[in-house]
Design brief:
The complex is a heterodimer of chains A (341) and B (332). Helices cover 44% and strands 13% of the residues of chain A. Chain A is an alpha/beta fold and 341 residues long. The two termini of chain A are 32 Å apart. Chain B is of the alpha/beta class and 332 residues long. Chain B has a single domain, classed as TIM Barrel, CATH 3.20.20. Chain B contains eleven helices and twelve strands. The chains are: A alpha/beta (341), B alpha/beta (332). Strand 9 of chain A pairs antiparallel with strand 9 of chain B, so a sheet runs across the interface.
Chain lengths: 341, 332
């Protein structure tokens, strides 16, 4: 059965999430020396230095020990978009100590050069290609296989059909992982050169800042004064809606504590058949309760699918568990929208 | 021909040994006169509806690179595979460009599996075209082209150059108040590390594109490389998505922003300009330009000046790529 990959940010969460059906854990680790060097200016991974990270190697060791006791592997994320040469020199021994001393099962990286250096320095340590590496095509699957990655994590922007095709291309060479719940991104994460630090997410900011539509030709200027005037005005309203949904419906939860926002529960029937080996729940910095609520939803629908439910039955149950038909019907909350019209 | 009308060698015409390329991301075909090498640089940039950035840039280019003339044309689009030209179109442009001694660069965006297959065919149309090259913006495409079309020159596109480009923040690291280690880290990439160098060597990449970064890059980022550099002006790439803002104008229902949905190439007609507030700024904010499915920032003149001033002393930087988002269509 496909494994559910679950975020964890403290050893105390292990027992609860393991009992909830977690098949794998991923976590962040920021050693104090990193903070001394870079403060909050350069994030070691895709979360800020405070939220969702472990700071002591002993905590990583304890987390791994507790997870392994339950048969669950632990992967640590080093997925900043890039690291400078000096940062790589600093991180390679840090990761070596995590592998040998703390018993982690692998790392998640985004920087292609760092992937190569890691494989050379620590050839026995599995390396996963983060979604931030933007693996969009079969050429990238070949690239990763040649350079020794053990898993590809697909970016959120791919459709289920693309994921199935890439899983087929990866079969026998790479494990595969796709997002199933939480933490959307309206841009392609691997090609977004902005930062959330200090200034917040640009995508969330954009719908509410002053803007103007600029015609690029004289013909376009005429159209904008005529038949395109209304569509141009409505475009930004639609963009605002889309951003809001992808941003966790304004980071809201239902009255039953279920997180709103990006979701692929309805697509689990097809995802399970795509050959993908792991399904990722995002959100290392979320509360323990949110992690557990997310895990329970995914597990419930996945068990239904494994038990022989049809695509329609699984989708119906997924929508019923969420119980937010107004959000589901809007269509902007789905990860995999290739059928949207 | 140069803007002064004199026939000179390609290198001389390019302006002090620096080649100038024009990138037309939203045209179904590059203007025929540009392909024939008949359009002076300032004419190519004049009359842009996006105005000031181009006017200032044309003046600065000609001041720093006397007699500069466009000698390379970029076709295709770096962020949208829908704008990938057909092999037939590429062959006809190549034929037109040959007469004008203008070289062609086929620009590929990050590609899907379908896009990759089409791009392989498109790239094949450049075989045997002197001076041509393919600009790849994802490593999967680099790997595929190196495996299946090893005869093609592959340039690493600027989207693969991972560095902070957030115009709300980036130039703050050009401040003596910024922490030294953080400033150093944000003014350089990971491309001088051994792993990245190994990849460049493995794939035989001799050129990479670079953006006009708001933060000043450290010396090694320019000169510590083995290959050549092309600098883009005046737009700095900021971000992109597979959902497209202009395409949402004419889509129905919840199909807006879905990857691969229908589009009427609204990107060729409209841009959207945003003014984003900058914390601690003077209230003017920073302008972001939504061009198709991507966001760009037209860098202020002092940043273009900084890049152009560096050119004579930078042996590795021998090409400037100027984006022209729109020109009025003229008969071929």
């Amino acid at each position: 059965m496909t494994k559910i990959t679950v975020p964890v940010s403290h050893p105390e969460e292990v027992e609860m999430l393991a009992a909830g059906g977690a098949g794998e854990f991923f976590c962040g680790y920021v050693p104090p020396e990193w903070l001394e060097r870079y403060g909050g200016a350069f994030w070691l991974n895709r979360r800020g230095p405070v939220a969702g990270n472990l700071f002591q190697r002993d905590d990583v060791s304890l987390l791994a020990e507790r997870s392994h006791a339950r048969g669950i592997p632990v992967f640590v994320t080093f997925n900043a978009p890039y690291y400078t040469p000096e940062q790589q020199e600093f991180l390679l021994p840090v990761i070596g100590r995590l592998a040998e001393g703390s018993g982690i099962d692998g790392v998640i990286v985004s920087d292609v050069g760092f992937l190569v250096s890691l494989r050379r320095t620590l050839p026995g340590l599995p390396v996963h290609a983060s979604s931030v590496m933007a693996s969009l095509n079969p050429g990238m699957v070949d690239f990763l296989a040649e350079h020794g990655a053990s898993r590809v994590i697909f970016p959120r922007s791919l459709g289920v059909g693309d994921i199935a095709a890439l899983c087929a291309a990866a079969a026998g060479r790479l494990e595969t992982e796709a997002f199933v719940l939480n933490e959307g991104c309206v841009f392609e994460e691997g090609y977004c050169m902005t930062t959330h630090r200090s200034v917040g997410a640009l995508c969330v900011q954009l719908p509410d800042v002053p803007h103007r539509v600029v015609p690029l030709t004289s013909d376009a200027a005429s159209s904008l004064a005529g038949e395109d005037r209304k569509p141009a005005r409505e475009m930004m309203g639609a963009f605002r809606d889309w951003v809001w949904f992808q941003n966790g419906c304004g980071n809201s939860v239902t009255d039953r504590g279920i997180p709103n926002g990006p979701c692929a529960l309805c697509a689990l029937f097809d995802l399970a058949r795509s050959g993908v080996t792991s399904l990722k729940i995002a959100g290392r910095s979320a509360s323990s309760f949110r992690k557990l609520a997310s895990l329970r939803m995914v597990r419930a629908v996945l068990e239904l699918v494994s038990g022989g439910a049809s695509r329609e039955e699984a989708a119906r149950e997924a929508a019923a568990i969420r119980n937010t038909p107004e959000f589901c019907n809007a269509g902007y909350m789905c990860y995999y929208r290739e059928g949207a019209s | 021909m140069t803007r002064h009308g004199g026939a000179v060698s390609a290198r001389k015409a390019a302006g002090c040994g620096v080649e100038v390329g024009l990138y037309f991301p939203f045209l179904a075909g590059p203007p025929a006169a540009v392909l024939r090498g008949e359009v002076p640089l300032d004419d190519a940039l004049r009359g842009s509806p996006l105005g000031d950035a181009h006017r200032a840039l044309a003046e600065a280019l000609l001041r720093h690179l006397p007699r500069a003339a466009p000698k390379r044309v970029y076709i295709g689009n770096e962020t949208c595979e829908r704008l990938l030209p057909s092999p037939e179109a590429i062959r006809s442009w190549a034929a037109a460009a040959r007469g004008g001694r203008v070289a062609l660069s086929l620009v590929l965006p990050p590609l899907s599996r379908d896009g990759l297959a089409r791009a392989e065919s498109a790239a094949g149309a450049l075989e045997g075209v002197e001076g041509s090259e393919v600009v790849a913006n994802d490593w999967g495409t680099v790997h595929r082209l190196a495996s299946r079309r090893p005869e093609l020159a592959v340039v690493l596109g600027r989207l693969t150059h991972k560095m902070l480009r957030d115009p709300r923040l980036a130039d703050r690291f050009d401040s003596p108040l910024a922490p030294l280690s953080a400033r150093a880290a944000l003014c350089r990439s990971g491309e001088l590390a051994p792993g990245f160098r190994a990849l460049m060597e493995r794939y035989g990449i001799g050129r990479r594109e670079i953006d006009p970064f708001l933060q000043p890059l450290e010396e090694d980022e320019w000169e510590g490389r083995d290959g050549r550099l092309s600098v883009h002006l005046p737009y700095q790439f900021v971000t992109m998505g597979r959902g497209c803002l202009p395409a949402a104008m004419h889509r129905e229902g919840n199909g807006k922003f879905a990857a691969g949905g229908p589009c009427r190439t609204e990107c060729a007609k409209y841009a959207v300009e945003f003014r984003v507030p900058v914390p601690g700024g003077n209230g003017a904010g920073r302008h972001l330009l939504s061009l198709g499915n991507a966001l760009y920032h037209a860098v202020p003149p002092h940043v273009s000046e900084r890049a152009l001033t560096l050119l004579p002393s930078r042996k590795r930087v021998d090409r400037v790529v100027v984006t022209v988002p729109a020109v009025e269509r003229t008969p071929a």
